[in-house]
């Protein structure tokens, strides 16, 4: 009687590339880029080694050319206004001369082949650092929605190819979709930060964007890290309201959520390999505890394996330039 046996396939690197079940390629990646008001600015972000804040002028042009030469096709823009122009409603978020609006116009005119996604939120633009209108220690959810919709519209009018609301206000996808449709931009897609958790992994980003809240926290509108069913509920709601892509953020500590969301919806799924995840890997490399390229490749592969179609990561440019 013959006994069934399972043999582990032994293979060299060329065969591995042929049979790997999951691979990360440059087309899967979206590179976050910080645009800062001012001129002639290119400053490395201490909390995100190898990433820079650039002004919407020749410095942005140089960055765009480097990004395109690497093979990357998409970026996610974050704006940083002058400190003195921050106010209670975050008016610079939707201003014609805001940093994101200036960047979108430049990129749309000179680098149309680069797909530009814009982060839609108020936290970097408000004097209090909260993601919405803030009064008496509370976020005013419904009062924030018109400001978010106007911000998204201003980005699209300036040349954005996609908007990505990250504020986590209830009903903001519908408000933005309705506003864009009303103004004739029904074909502009929305990527929703649907399952955005109240995470300790955001510290390096908040330092980079100078967007930490002056008082209070964000647990009232971001998700409890202990919850998973809630994520599915929010994803379903966002898709119903008009989200074209949904997102899970952070990624590495929430691979189970990525997996569950992948099986919950048929729309494309993005995952955000956030600043804290990136910074920890960089710190480990500097301390000779891990090799950054190897560990980040493993991290990105795990996110892809969990079910993400797209990965937003600060490692995108290095990955594209170095190859696997």
Offer a concise description of the structure:
This protein is of the alpha/beta class and 324 residues long. Helix content is 39%, strand content 17%. It has a single domain, classed as Aldolase class I (TIM Barrel, Alpha-Beta Barrel).
Give a structural overview.
5-aminolevulinate 1 binds at residues 206, 218. Pfam families: ALAD. This protein is of the alpha/beta class and 324 residues long. Strands 1, 2, 3, 4, 5, 8, 9, 10, 11 and 12 form a ten-stranded mixed β-sheet that branches. Strands 6-7 form a two-stranded antiparallel sheet. It has helices at 13-19, 58-70, 99-110, 141-158, 172-182, 203-209, 229-241, 255-264, 275-286, 292-306, 316-322; strands at residues 29-36, 42-44, 52-54, 74-80, 115-120, 134-135, 138-139, 162-165, 191-196, 245-249, 269-273, 310-313. The protein has one domain (22-321): Aldolase class I (TIM Barrel, Alpha-Beta Barrel). It is built from eleven helices and twelve strands. It is globular.
Integer average pLDDT: 89
Q: What's the architecture in CATH terms?
A: Alpha-Beta Barrel
Q: How far apart are the first and last residues' alpha carbons, in Å? A: 46 Å
Strand residue percentage: 15-25%
Organism: Halarsenatibacter silvermanii
Cofactor: Zn(2+)
Keywords: Heme biosynthesis, Lyase, Metal-binding, Porphyrin biosynthesis, Zinc
Family: Belongs to the ALAD family.
SSE layout and pairings?
Layout: H1 13-19, E1 29-36, E2 42-44, E3 52-54, H2 58-70, E4 74-80, H3 99-110, E5 115-120, E6 134-135, E7 138-139, H4 141-158, E8 162-165, H5 172-182, E9 191-196, H6 203-209, H7 229-241, E10 245-249, H8 255-264, E11 269-273, H9 275-286, H10 292-306, E12 310-313, H11 316-322
Parallel strand pairs: 1-3, 1-4, 1-12, 4-5, 5-8, 9-10, 10-11, 11-12
Antiparallel strand pairs: 2-3, 6-7
Helix pairs in contact: 3-4, 4-5, 7-8
GO molecular function: porphobilinogen synthase activity; zinc ion binding
Active site: 196 (schiff-base intermediate with substrate), 249 (schiff-base intermediate with substrate)
Binding site for Zn(2+): 121, 123, 131
């Amino acid at each position: 009687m013959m006994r069934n046996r399972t043999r582990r396939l032994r293979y060299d690197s060329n065969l591995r590339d042929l049979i790997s079940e999951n691979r990360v390629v440059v087309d899967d990646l979206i590179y976050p880029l910080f645009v800062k008001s001012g001129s002639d600015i290119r400053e490395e972000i201490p909390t995100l080694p190898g990433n820079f804040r650039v002004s919407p002028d020749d410095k942005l042009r140089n960055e765009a050319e480097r990004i395109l030469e690497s093979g990357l096709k998409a970026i996610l823009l974050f704006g940083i206004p002058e400190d003195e122009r921050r106010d209670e409603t975050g008016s610079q978020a939707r201003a014609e001369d805001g940093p994101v609006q200036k960047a979108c116009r430049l990129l749309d005119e000179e680098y149309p082949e680069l797909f530009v996604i814009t982060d839609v939120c108020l936290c970097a633009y408000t004097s209090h650092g909260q993601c919405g209108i803030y009064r008496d220690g509370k976020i005013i959810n419904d009062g924030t929605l018109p400001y978010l919709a106007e911000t998204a519209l201003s980005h699209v009018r300036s040349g954005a190819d996609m908007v990505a609301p990250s504020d986590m206000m209830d009903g903001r996808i519908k408000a933005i979709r309705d506003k864009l449709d009303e103004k004739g931009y029904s074909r502009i897609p929305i990527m929703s930060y649907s399952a955005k958790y109240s995470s300790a992994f955001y510290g390096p980003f908040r330092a980079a964007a100078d967007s930490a809240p002056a008082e209070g926290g964000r647990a009232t509108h971001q998700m409890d890290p202990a919850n998973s069913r809630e994520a599915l509920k929010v994803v379903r709601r966002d898709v119903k309201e008009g989200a074209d892509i949904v997102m899970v953020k952070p990624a590495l500590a929430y691979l189970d959520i990525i997996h569950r969301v992948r099986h919950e919806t048929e729309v494309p799924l993005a995952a955000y390999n956030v600043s804290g995840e990136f910074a920890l890997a960089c710190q480990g490399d500097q301390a000779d505890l891990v090799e950054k390229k190897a560990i980040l490749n493993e991290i990105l592969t795990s996110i892809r394996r969990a079910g993400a179609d797209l990965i937003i990561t600060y490692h995108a440019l290095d990955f594209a330039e170095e190859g696997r």
